[in-house]
């Protein structure tokens, strides 16, 4: 009986009566035990003397010295790296090869050839090739094999027969007469029932030397062809199914006549054929009554087990390859197509549950007690027993998955995916994803701390865990062959930055707590601290005593890591699919196999698993479903059977036609509620369990099948193929036409429909602005056709304009259109600094409609009415307080003296900074001088007279570094503006990366030919360093602080001007004054509960609410009364949160309370795979639709009239259509929205918003992603970062998840005009009204 570990028993058995299946299928597999080896050989296998140890060390060399056959691969062979334990691993197709029995002239004998020369000579050759071996041992093995090994006798017999025939042939030739004696080619033939009378070659085994007759041919699975002399270097390949396949090479593991597997073996009960895998699985288990030379083989065992799996798999693949006519749809388990289907299944789970919550890596520990102390034989090392490592790892893996799935170790688990891979040392490791139920989703840093730790435990309080963390969970030292890239940087970004508290950024990505506590610990001569600790879970590390990396991945940004490991497939090279090719050969050439993987596969341990079950749904066009038939069937019978055959898709249509509940579901949603009964070929209502539906993938190149799939993922309850093609009562001829009617595809027809729908709503100027947006943002392929078709609508207001302002009383149609082109060109220049000539073959204006001469950019800056500006200054200048007057005079003095001072106006919220800016600019412009006003955000720029964003004005590159320059041509008219400028005002500069200001500085020094800061022009920076700093994705505190302007070389030239008097509170109550002072303390970080804490007590006047519903009711009271919803209603209130996820949830919650009809707009999503990437990286459309990325609209956008929305892109900034602009939806159609702006100088104006293609500005997705959708999101709630620079009357703060970066809490609290108008929602079960406040004192101005 095989020796098992108790936990390996079948789940259907008990501790009292355990049953096991991996070794013998509960007794179905019964093979003769291996014979005890000769006593001397056994002593070498298990002895403790020096000779035995040397034998085991060099066992592969000894075996190769006496093997009858050689081992070769189609690619590389063994792999041994570094100073670690020995590893046998190969790539490609493994082959056993047999050469001639005599060497080629001039070559030294090898393998079987050594058996036919003098013993002493053979030993000398073997020792020359294997100097590490000892001659005594070599001679002993030679004697043992000559005495006991049956194949030695068979080869001798064949050799003698061939030599005798060759001698007769030579004699015949010498006599030169008679018939020539033919060459003799003996076979080692396997036959259970041989006719020995015919061949008269008696033998005691089932292997015989066969001298074939003329009618006989070699049989691949039964014959091994032997040749006396080789023709060139020809080697005969031995079939994997021959029972001598392994014994001929592994002569030390099979010293007697033991044969391997052959096709005639059956189960012990006579039922069913014994497979090759089952045979080897039986041999892999130790038995008390058997001395297994295989399991004692050490390094040779590694090679044997890899060889065994290679033979098993190659045999199976050969069968598939030779029977393709009968197995058209067969997918072998490691084929590229099968891996593609597994990938798609995993994508279905990710789509359904949005994103995983925990990502983990578990690596086998070869020093587990179950391995090193309980399972190894005397004298063995862990490297000698890959079977034990694989078996113990599987038990640990099962236990870990049970902890996460059944015991809900991290939280209530609703789904998981895992895959097994193997390290370079072939140790198994598991990558797994866990998806949580909604109530356990990770939203707060305290939840992260409960799951993940990234610090050393206390060495004194918990020495056991400390030792495990130091041993398993420390990254380093970093070396070239481990993790360093070409620049010498660690690819894993170690060491990490220190972090006082765990925080979560706006996308939910955690920054783990890593305190700089001064501790460091030595390991292998290197010292490590908390910055080197790989995130782990203390309880799991303690329980499993191995490397278990646990990461919280509470956003879709973890998908890159997930795709890299979970979905890349098992240990093999990348394969292409979708082409006519031999995928079996591709797989064999690309695979890598090591011993641990071979054991795992032979014992049928799963390599990939996912839960819940994914139901693959058939996808076929009408009359094109798959029909399975035998090639011998009558074609008419097959055709008739196919016409009445039920498929899952056709039965889905039937259910939708007869079942009202089914009509609420799409095809993919169907398996959640219905079960497919295979034998009945019908759907039944699901009574238990859960499953996710997944449509088979289709590529756009498949035409109608792709469009059919797109419709099936979108439309609920179709009753037939025709019903799918019906949109708004119109039956379309093709599925593609139906998709176009539903705006599910991208083409120029979209813009035609967009302009058609918009021309019904508005005329003239609004349409021209929309046309410019389409030109600049949507990249239509034929813009000239759009112009030709819609120019009457685009120019329908110009006849009157030409009459009134240009003196053309009867303008011709050509003049109207030419003037329309001129106006479109002007809008293009204003919005994007481009012109119509960049959009060929768009026509360009031919007449001179310009009302200015010279440099148009300078004229644009000088177009202000100087008299109006003077009046503005006279009216507002007397309102300055003392601080404002001082700043005002200092700035004007620098301009008048041309001294080029660089100022920074340090101004907290409410101190009148913008008021100061606008009076300064009015004063300077009234003198005919140029003032350039910019801000770091478009929303802030709207508050400045003539303000624009810094990036667009200075043409700052999107990606900046310490060497960047602005993309302004020094000799251009645009550069003249900066040469003539007298003043630059740059507001909200603390939130801009210092590299942006440095790029502008370098560029202006060059343009103005001056080495003074910014070329000698007076510059006024403004802002408050208490507010949000530059956003560095996943940046550490030192990185964020280092990006601030205060860390720039520019700062040494800055003169600081202070505004501290809060203008809003001049007539305010004492309570409001106290609140303003408290706000400054929040910004300065001077009111923490204690010096070591980052917690503050919220002000008494702030209203603390108990639920999200209460927060909504406090801020949006009477939201169900539509009569109250004037624009001012939405200007006065908002809800702020730190994270995008929470903002979306709040918006959806409020949406349900908002009356009026809901309209759903669906996006068109696409991904682009780089050239050379795997085709299996094709992502189903429904997965792309499920992506919720920062700065990108939702794929399924639900909108209602009179609904507040926020714009996500700069479409027409001068018309108020800028990123962050809030507006109210007034009308919509399928391809264009009409909205009314809420804020800024264009408040109250109506604007058009088309669907545009958006690409994430920064994403960790492993592909290039694009979404065509209306660039808007709901705006009841917004992120704190997005709202900086705006103020409202009522503010709701969702701080269940605390703020995570400097200045966020200060910004959020300072948006309201009174503390009585602030409501805050704290984490659930909070007993005190305090929250986290993150402040970096090192950036503040004292």
UniProtKB/TrEMBL annotation:
Keyword rRNA-binding: no
Catalytic activity: ATP + H2O = ADP + phosphate + H(+)
EC number: 5.6.2.3
Cofactor(s) named in the record: Mg(2+)
Domain DNA helicase Pif1-like DEAD-box helicase, residue spans: 880-1087
GO molecular function terms listed in the Swiss-Prot or TrEMBL record: 5'-3' DNA helicase activity; ATP binding; hydrolase activity
Alphabetical UniProt keywords: ATP-binding, DNA damage, DNA recombination, DNA repair, Helicase, Hydrolase, Nucleotide-binding
GO terms, biological process: DNA recombination; DNA repair; telomere maintenance
Domain Helitron helicase-like: 279-330, 333-433
InterPro entries associated with the record: DNA_helicase_pif1-like_DEAD, Helitron_helicase-like, P-loop_NTPase, Pif1-like_2B_dom
Gene3D superfamilies: P-loop containing nucleotide triphosphate hydrolases
DNA helicase Pif1-like 2B domain boundaries: 1182-1228
Family stated for the protein in its record: Belongs to the helicase family.
PANTHER family for this protein: ATP-DEPENDENT DNA HELICASE (PTHR10492:SF57), PTHR10492
Protein's recorded name: ATP-dependent DNA helicase
Organism encoding this protein: Ceratodon purpureus (Fire moss)
């Amino acid at each position: 009986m095989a020796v098992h570990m108790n936990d390996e028993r079948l789940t259907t058995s008990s501790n009292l009566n355990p049953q096991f299946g991996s070794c013998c299928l509960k007794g179905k597999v019964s093979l003769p035990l291996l014979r005890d080896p000769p006593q001397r050989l056994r002593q070498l296998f298990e002895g403790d003397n020096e000779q035995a140890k040397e034998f085991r060390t060099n066992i592969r060399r000894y075996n190769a010295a006496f093997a009858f056959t050689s081992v070769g691969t189609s690619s590389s062979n063994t792999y041994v790296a570094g100073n670690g334990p020995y590893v046998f691993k190969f790539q490609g197709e493994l082959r056993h090869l047999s050469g001639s029995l005599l060497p080629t002239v001039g070559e030294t004998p090898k393998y079987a050839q050594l058996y036919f020369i003098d013993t002493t000579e053979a030993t000398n050759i073997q020792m020359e090739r294997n100097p590490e071996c000892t001659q005594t041992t070599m001679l002993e093995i030679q004697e043992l094999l000559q005495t006991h090994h049956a194949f030695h006798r068979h080869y001798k017999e064949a050799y003698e027969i061939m030599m005798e025939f060759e001698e007769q042939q030579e004699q015949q030739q010498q006599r030169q007469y008679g018939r020539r004696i033919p060459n003799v080619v003996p076979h080692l033939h396997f036959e259970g029932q041989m006719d020995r009378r015919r061949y008269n070659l008696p033998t005691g085994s089932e292997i015989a030397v066969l001298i074939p007759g003329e009618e006989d041919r070699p049989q691949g699975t039964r014959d091994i062809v032997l040749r006396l002399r080789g023709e060139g270097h020809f080697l005969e390949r031995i079939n994997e199914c021959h029972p001598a396949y392994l014994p001929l090479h592994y002569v030390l593991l099979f010293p007697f006549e033991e044969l391997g597997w052959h096709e005639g073996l059956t189960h012990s009960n006579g039922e069913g054929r014994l497979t090759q895998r089952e045979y080897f699985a039986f041999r892999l288990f130790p038995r008390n009554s058997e001395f297994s030379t295989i399991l004692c083989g050490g390094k040779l065992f590694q090679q044997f087990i890899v060889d065994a799996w290679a033979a098993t798999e190659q045999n199976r693949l050969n069968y598939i390859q030779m029977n393709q006519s009968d197995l058209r749809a067969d997918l072998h388990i490691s084929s590229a197509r099968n891996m593609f289907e597994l990938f798609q299944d995993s994508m279905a789970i990710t789509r359904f549950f949005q994103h995983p919550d925990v990502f983990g890596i578990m690596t086998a520990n070869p020093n587990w007690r179950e391995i090193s102390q309980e399972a190894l034989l005397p004298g063995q090392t862990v490297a000698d027993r890959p079977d034990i490592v694989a078996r113990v790892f599987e038990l640990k893996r099962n236990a870990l998955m049970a902890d996460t799935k059944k015991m809900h170790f991290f939280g209530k688990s609703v789904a998981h995916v895992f895959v097994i891979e193997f390290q370079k040392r072939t140790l198994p490791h598991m990558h797994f994803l866990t998806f949580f139920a909604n109530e356990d989703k990770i939203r707060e840093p305290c939840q992260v701390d409960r799951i993940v730790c990234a610090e050393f435990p206390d060495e004194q309080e918990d020495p056991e865990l400390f030792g495990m963390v130091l041993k398993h969970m420390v990254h380093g030292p970093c070396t070239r062959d481990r993790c360093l890239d070409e620049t010498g940087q660690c690819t894993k970004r170690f060491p990490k930055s220190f972090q006082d508290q765990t925080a979560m950024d706006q996308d939910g990505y955690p920054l783990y707590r890593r305190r700089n506590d001064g501790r460091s610990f030595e390991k292998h001569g290197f010292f490590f601290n908390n910055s080197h600790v790989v995130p782990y879970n203390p309880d799991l590390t303690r329980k499993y005593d191995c490397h278990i990396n646990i990461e919280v991945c509470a956003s879709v940004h973890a998908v890159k890591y997930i795709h890299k490991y979970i979905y890349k497939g098992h240990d093999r090279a990348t394969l292409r699919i979708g082409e006519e090719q031999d995928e079996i050969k591709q797989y064999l050439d690309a695979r890598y196999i090591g011993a641990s993987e071979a054991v795992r596969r032979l014992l049928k341990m799963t390599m990939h698993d996912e839960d819940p079950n994914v139901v693959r749904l058939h996808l076929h066009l009408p009359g094109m479903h798959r029909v399975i038939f035998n090639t011998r069937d009558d074609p008419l019978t097959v055709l008739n059977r196919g016409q009445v055959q039920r498929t899952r898709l056709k039965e889905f249509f039937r259910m939708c036609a007869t079942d009202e509940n089914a009509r609420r579901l799409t095809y993919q949603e169907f398996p959640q509620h219905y079960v497919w009964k295979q034998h009945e070929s019908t759907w039944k209502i699901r009574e238990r369990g859960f499953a996710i539906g997944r449509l088979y993938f289709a590529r756009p190149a498949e035409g109608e099948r792709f469009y059919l799939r797109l419709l099936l993922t979108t439309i609920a309850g179709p009753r037939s193929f025709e019903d799918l093609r019906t949109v708004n009562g119109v039956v379309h001829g093709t599925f593609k036409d139906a998709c176009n009617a539903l705006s599910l595809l991208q083409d120029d027809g979209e813009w035609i429909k967009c302009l058609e729908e918009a021309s019904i709503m508005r005329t003239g100027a609004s349409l021209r602005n929309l046309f410019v947006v389409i030109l600049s943002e949507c990249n239509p392929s034929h813009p000239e056709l759009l112009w030709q078709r819609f120019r009457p609508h685009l120019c329908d207001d110009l006849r009157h304009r030409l009459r009134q302002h240009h003196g053309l009383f009867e303008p011709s149609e050509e003049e109207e259109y030419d003037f329309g082109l001129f106006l479109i060109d002007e809008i293009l220049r204003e919005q994007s600094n481009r012109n119509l000539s960049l959009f060929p073959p768009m026509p360009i204006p031919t007449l001179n409609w310009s009302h200015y001469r010279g440099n148009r950019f300078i004229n644009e800056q000088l177009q202000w009415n100087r008299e109006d500006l003077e009046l503005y200054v006279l009216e507002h200048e007397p309102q300055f307080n003392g601080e404002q007057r001082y700043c005002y005079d200092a700035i004007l003095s620098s301009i008048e003296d041309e001294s080029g001072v660089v100022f920074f106006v340090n101004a907290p919220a409410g101190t009148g900074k913008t008021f100061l800016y606008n009076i300064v600019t009015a004063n300077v412009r009234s003198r005919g001088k140029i003032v350039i006003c910019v801000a770091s955000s478009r929303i802030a720029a709207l508050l400045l007279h003539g303000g624009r964003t810094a990036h667009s004005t200075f043409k700052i590159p999107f990606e900046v570094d310490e060497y960047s320059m602005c993309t302004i041509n020094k000799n251009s008219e645009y550069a003249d503006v900066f040469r003539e400028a007298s003043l630059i005002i740059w507001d909200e500069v603390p939130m801009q990366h210092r590299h942006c200001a440095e790029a502008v500085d370098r560029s202006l020094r060059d343009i103005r030919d001056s080495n003074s800061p910014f070329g000698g022009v007076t510059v006024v920076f403004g802002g408050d360093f208490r507010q949000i700093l530059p956003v560095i994705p996943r940046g550490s505190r030192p990185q964020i602080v280092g990006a601030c302007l205060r860390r720039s070389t520019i700062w040494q030239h800055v003169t600081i001007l202070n505004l501290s008097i809060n203008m809003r509170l001049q007539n305010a109550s004492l309570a409001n004054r106290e609140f303003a002072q408290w706000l400054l303390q929040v910004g300065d970080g001077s009111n923490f509960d204690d010096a070591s804490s980052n917690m503050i007590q919220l002000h008494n006047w702030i209203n603390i609410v108990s639920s999200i519903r209460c927060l909504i009711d406090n801020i949006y009271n009477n939201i169900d009364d539509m009569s109250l919803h004037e624009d001012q209603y939405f200007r006065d209130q908002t809800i702020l949160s730190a994270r995008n996820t929470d903002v979306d949830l709040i918006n959806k919650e409020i949406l349900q309370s908002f009356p009026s009809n809901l309209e759903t707009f669906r996006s068109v999503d696409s991904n682009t795979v780089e050239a050379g990437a795997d085709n299996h990286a094709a992502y189903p459309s429904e997965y792309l639709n499920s992506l919720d990325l920062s700065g990108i609209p939702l794929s399924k956008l639900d909108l209602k009239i009179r609904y507040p929305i926020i714009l996500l892109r700069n479409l027409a900034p001068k018309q108020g259509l800028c990123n962050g602009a809030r507006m109210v939806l007034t009308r919509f159609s399928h391809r264009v929205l009409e909205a009314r702006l809420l804020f800024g100088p264009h408040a109250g104006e109506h604007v058009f918003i088309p669907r545009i293609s958006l690409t994430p500005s920064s994403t960790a997705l492993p592909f290039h992603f694009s979404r065509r959708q209306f660039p808007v999101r709901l705006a009841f709630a917004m992120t704190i970062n997005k709202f900086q620079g705006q103020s409202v009357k009522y503010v709701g703060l969702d701080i269940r998840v605390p703020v995570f970066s400097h200045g966020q809490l200060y910004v959020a609290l300072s948006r309201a005009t009174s503390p009585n108008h602030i409501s805050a929602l704290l984490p659930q079960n909070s007993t005190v009204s305090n929250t986290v406040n993150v402040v970096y004192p090192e950036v503040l101005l004292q």
